[in-house]
Amino acid sequence: MGEFLRRIYYLLNRRKLESELQNDIDFHREMLSAESRRNFGNAALMRERSREAWGWGWLDRLGQDLSFGARLLKKSPGLAFTAIMVLALGIGVNVTAFNIIDVFYFRPLPVRDPNSLVRFTSQSPEGASTEVSYPAAMFYQQHNQVLASVIVQRWLNMTFGQGKTESVRAGLVSANYFSEIGASAAYGRLLAAPVDAGPDAAPAAVLGYGFWQRHFGGDASVVGRTITLNQHVATVVGITAYEFAGLDPDEGEHTDLWLLVEQEPYFVPQTRVLSSFNDADSHIHMWGRLKPGVSMKMAEQALLPLAQELAHEHPGVIQKDEHLKAAPGAYAANLGADDLPLFGLLSVLVLLILATACGNLGNLLLGRAITREREIATRLALGATRGRIIRQLLTESLLLAAIGSTIGLLLSWLASRALVVGLGGPGNFDYAPDWRTILFAFGAGTLACLLAGLPPARQLARQKHHSSRARTIFMSLQVAASCVLLVVSALLVRAMQIALNTDPGFDYAHTITVDPALYAHAFEPPAAREYLDKLEQRISQVPGVESVTLVLNPPMGNRASVQRLNGAVRFDVYINQVRPDFFRTLGVPLVRGRDFTKDDHDVVIVSESYARRVWPGKDPLQQMYELGKQKLPVIGIAGNARSVGMRNGQSAEMYTPITDQYIKEALVLLRATGRPEDIIGNVADVARSLDPLLSPQARTVKEAFQEKVGFSGKIAAVISGMGTLALLLAVIGLYGVVSYNVSQKTREIGIRMALGATRFDVVHSVLSRFAVPLSLALAAGLGLAGAASLVLRTELYGLSNFDPLSYFSAAVLLAGIGGLAALLPARRALKVDPMEALRCE
Amino acid sequence: MAKNEMLPGTLGMLILRVLQPGPIHGYAIAQRIHTLSKELLQVEEGSLYPALQRMLLKGWVKAEWGISETNRKVRFYKLTAEGRRQLQSEIEDFDRVLQGIQSVMSKA
Q: Mean pLDDT across the stretch A215-236?
């Protein structure tokens, strides 16, 4: 048994060994007194020194400090509760933010061997695309030396059922998809290579858990039965597990059923997905599994010659410099450079909450330190060292940190899920904190407690009083931090009001979009044009329809093409392709020039804001619009509408006629004479009757508008909640500091009043010392808010990020409520009876 | 030299040495050092028991229950094999130091 093991043994058998030691010493004393020799040494001290030899003294002291700290907390439960709750809230908010980011960006999806899974995107001089073509993916699979397997996936809307059909979303995957993920079925089996992949394999479908619940009421006997998809029969072979979301959780949650991509021609006879090298025909997402020892960079390099070979064999379809780029594939989202500013802002906001909590806690601990002065003085007089006292006080802070962090962690567990699901995120994710989150929670808690606990501990141990300075610093921190949060929430709330109450430049209340999703059904441009012409014509005959047009990026939709103009300030032009009558249908005025005609091509109509920004003082109708290498004549000026980039105030719109290249992605846009809700059913029925294989989706633009604004509203609500929390903490803190100051100055106030001071003088004497630091804190907060708001510029529905009203109202609110919190205790100073005050002490 | 002072670092060696003939209890250790030193050295319990705890931890001595001459249950300390080796090396070290001191004292 080595010395280390003996040490552990001693730790575990302390009771027994201590009693043995005690017995030794007792015996020794008995023998001494028997020989009438005495020894009056300190028995306890000697025992302690002997125990010290076992090397566990620090643990004993820690235990003493902890139990003493716990007793102290129990003695003043009010203070303990406040401190712990302040800390738990501050930490909870931070941990929630951290946990959500962790879940989506840093925690791998539940797939087999996540580290070797990579996602490929296509890079070309013209830009990046998340999609490749199926034959290209298969070409890479057959000829590469670096990937153990290639996994592909795409989505398709299909009709489900016979007679009265409905639209379902199908995920089309390669045969190795489920086995590479390592998923297992809730019932039946999942699609797998030898059974389903062959050319003679029977059409098979796996149902998503949610779809199965909705449509079959969770009846497991559906496995083995047949269903009808796109008028073709397929056999249900299994049900996915409840939590299965595939490799793309956003889509995965809304996927109703899964098919093999190789069987798509059976369901969609005209499809070109398996044969066309044009990625616009197939929209394939590609993943790969790296062979052992291969890095992402090595894989990219090894695939380059294959990309050149493809480009060589398919000129015009695949570009010369097109190649694949690899990124980690097993994460719900990859952090892009565009996300960083918003992430930064979010981090700053939540850290400000922590700072407020920290300042508040600091004041609470300072307050307690003062009541403990006598106890500490006694201990110092009895010979405790300063280090020992500081250590004890910090141990007490750490005890607070541990309790606060634990509660904060539990709060964040609940909050993460509620928040993400509330904002429309996936519900079938595991939001439980992992080791990173737990580490972060306790790290943040410990840091907060050390920051808040060190100044009072030092003051106590030195028996010196600078507490009012430390208090002012803690106080200013809270005021500045809550100021930033209030300004940001004011900006977001004002932006919401603007979105709801001002004219977005177009009429969203009377319009409906109908999306036939032709691109998903392999329509060639002529067929697509023919279909859309017919659809437009049929819809225009529905009673209550005023006008009909086509549009590529629907108003309030999730699709956008953006041209970013160079300049000091970011400015985006949203490019849209439309058919004649678009402006009348959407209710956008044509200010000058003319509308498109059926025969127009290579001409543009720009919004007034574009003309004013790019051609100030010139006649826009005489200008040429520069789009890439093209120069296009401007034929008209439209009113300012933000139909696509509604949140983005730094933007303009530009329109061109729909080209053949994009025609299969177009939607029908129509204007109702009355309420759109009254005719949307008729419109949908008419649209569906045109082609039994398609099930066009009709939707009012108002609904999309409410969804978008609703999302902004939820974000504004979350930030406002944080702002309110910070304000509340600051108010509590301010109240406490002023109360303390009044109680300290009772004598002085008494003397002043006895000498004839007015009520104003008294209040002034109590509050004046706070005026300068708090004004500075307010100013610093406003400045910091100004800097932080730069990030929000494109999210404010056109409101300036320096909107004076937002800053002013935040400052007034903070000053007003803060002033009230200071005046209430200051009023107590007025009630001081001079005689009483002088008599006390 | 005052009655109860010792050269620093020698207490451990003395304890190990008096344990060499056989196991004895703590009080007897102090007694034996006292008598063997012709009453020159006196070991206080305040240093004896911490030293014994350290040696137990190092594995130089072992404690076993026994009955004292006054018929009381008490722990007897016993030298282990490792303790014997330790005693040997401490004696050698001590001799070397003593020789060094003596030669300085006689020549300087």
A: 92
Q: Do B45 and A53 touch (CB under 8 A)?
A: no
Task: Give the three-state DSSP class for A655.
Answer: strand
Which pLDDT band holds residue A36 (cuts at 50, 70, 90)? low
Give the least confident one: A28-42, A352-366, A448-462, A671-685: A28-42
Of A130, A112, A109, A111, the closest CA to residue A120 belongs to: A130
Give residue ranges of B with CB < 8 Å to any A CB: 25-27, 30, 44-46, 49-50, 52-54, 56-59, 63, 68, 70, 72-75
Q: How many CB atoms lie within 10 A of CB A27?
A: 19
Q: Find where tokens 């013209």 sit.
A: A126
Q: In the 8-state DSSP scheme, what is residue B56?
A: H
pLDDT of residue A337: 63
Q: How far apart are CA A782 and CA A479, in angstroms?
A: 10
pLDDT band with cut points at 50, 70 and 90 for residue A439: very high
Chains A & B: contacts with CB separation below 8 Å? 68
Among partner residues B49, B53, B75, which is closest to A54 by beta-carbon distance? Answer: B53
More confident residue, A678 or A647: A678
CA-based nearest distance B107→chain A, Å = 41
CA A399/CA A635 separation, integer angstroms: 72
Q: Which of B11, B15, B24, B27 to mutate to test the interface with A (most CBs of A within 10 A)?
A: B27
Side-chain-facing half-sphere of A295: CA atoms under 13 Å: 3
Asked if A408 and A96 count as a contact pair (C-beta separation under 8 A), the reply is no
The token pair at A463 is 């028996």
Per-domain residue ranges of chain B:
11-107
Answer whether B57 sits within 8 Å of A31, measured CB to CB.
no
Complex confidence, ipTM: 0.82
Top-confidence residue, A316 or A92: A92
State the pLDDT at residue A336. 65
Q: Are A386 and A377 in contact (CB under 8 A)?
A: no
DSSP codes joined into one string, A485-532: HHHHHHHHHHHHHHHHHS--SS--TTEEEEE--GGGGT--HHHHHHHH
Dihedral sign, Cα of residue A478, residue A482, residue A483, residue A488: positive
pLDDT digits (tens, 9 = 90+) for A513-565: 999 888 777 688 898 999 999 999 999 999 999 999 999 999 988 777 888 77
Sheet with strand B61-67: strands edge to edge:
B24-25, B73-79, B61-67
Inter-helix orientation angle B11-19/B45-58, to 10°: 70
d(CA A668, CA B106): 116
Residue A37: its pLDDT value, please?
62
pLDDT greater than 70 at residue B38? yes
Query: Among candidates A708, A669, A659, A707, which has minimal Cα distance to A561?
Result: A659
Q: What is the mean pLDDT of residues B48-70?
A: 88
Which of B25, B48, B49 to mutate to probe the A interface, most A CBs <10 Å? B49
Check whether A223 has a pLDDT greater than 90. Answer: yes
Q: Does domain B11-107 have CATH number 1.10.10.10?
A: yes
Mutate to test the interface with B, among A24, A37, A52, A56 (most CBs of B within 10 A): A24
Q: Of A492, A480, A532, A546, nearest to A815 (Cα)?
A: A480
Give me the residue label for tokens 């002034």.
Answer: A764
Domain boundaries, chain A: 3-55, 58-107+337-465, 114-330, 468-502+710-841, 511-708
Mean pLDDT score across all residues of chain A: 85
pLDDT value, residue A42: 67
Q: Say which of A27, A50, A51 has its CB closest to residue B74.
A: A27
Let me know if B25 is exposed, middle or buried by CB neighbors in 10 A (0-12, 13-18, 19+). Answer: buried
Supply the pLDDT for residue B3: 44
CA distance B70 to chain A (A): 9
Chain B residue nearest residue A48, CA to CA: B50
Using DSSP's 3-state secondary structure scheme, residue A840 falls into coil
